Amino acid sequence: MVYQNLMTSTISVAIAFGIIVLTRFIIHAMFKKNYVSVNEIEKEGNIAVAIRNGAIYLGIAIAMIGVISTPLTQLIDGLTAMIFVLIAVNISDNVVFSKVNNSIEIGKNNMSLALAEGGLFIGTGIIAMASFSGEGPYVSSIVFFLLGQIVLVLSTIIVEQMYKGIKDKIIDGNLSAGILLGSVIIGLSFVLSSAVAGDFHGWKEDIISFLEYALFGYLLVLVFANKAIDWIFLPTTKIKEQIENNNVSAIIVVSAIKVGIALLISNSL
Description:
By secondary structure, this protein is mainly α. Helices cover 81% and strands 0% of the residues.
């Protein structure tokens, strides 16, 4: 029994590693034309490139946690997870940060943008992981992944409204802004994963449940958490002021609290 489990685990890890290696070559081809390549990690020490690529790999690995089946199914789902995360890359480039060429900015070692993007890629992996879990038609995994992506994109719009100009600050290299946006996306992903995970019960029931969780997540992660943090942890200032001042230390604490609250919520639902 132990031998069989070890063999199954070895095969699963090998499949996941193979897909991550394939992803490495794909993103190298995607980013090379914009002067962002793996060589910038190896030769130039570009931390932003390392963060971006590392988050892509991590997102795929997280997504594959939800895949527990035969090697063939793992391979198919793993390739699907890779496509999901690469979709998130394109969403970040063309929708969330459409004002600039993200790859060129990352090539300039813009760590703020890399962290914000990293939050989206990891969040995508969390939602993909949940969408692969449970029993149901394969199309439901795709639909709820896409719904999750829409909610994550909407969250960036809401955060932009709450903290005016936060995306411009990220593009300008304000590290605290990138950390905050990335953490908000990861936090919401945990809450949304609770709605996506599990067996498929029916389109109407599951979509309504998903929308309820999304609203609940917005209220707790973006509204309640902000008020509590401002009141308890930053009594003499506000989150907005700390972003303006690029106070990375304060925003790290704020971000950790937000993700922690989201984790507690997702495990209690």
